[in-house]
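Hi Y.,

Following your request, here is the sequence exactly as I used it, all 58 residues.
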Amino acid sequence: MSVPPGVVLAAAVLVGLAAWGIALFWRGRAKERATEASSHYESEAGFLGSQDSTPHND
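Below is the corresponding structure, written out as C-alpha cells. Let me know if you'd prefer a different format.
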C-alpha cells in the first residue's frame, strides 16, 4: 500500500506550520519574560534609588 505524494506533502506542510507556530509562541513567551524581568529590575532600582539616606532638615 503506497501513500500518495500529495498526502505526504500535506503532512509535511502541516508539521512545518505547527513547528513554526510553536517556535513563535515560545519566542514570544521568552521575550515577554525578559521584558517582565527587566521592568521588575528597573522598578526595584527606582525604588531603592529613591530612598535617600541623608536626613532632611525641613
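Residues 19-43 form one domain.

Thanks again,
Q.
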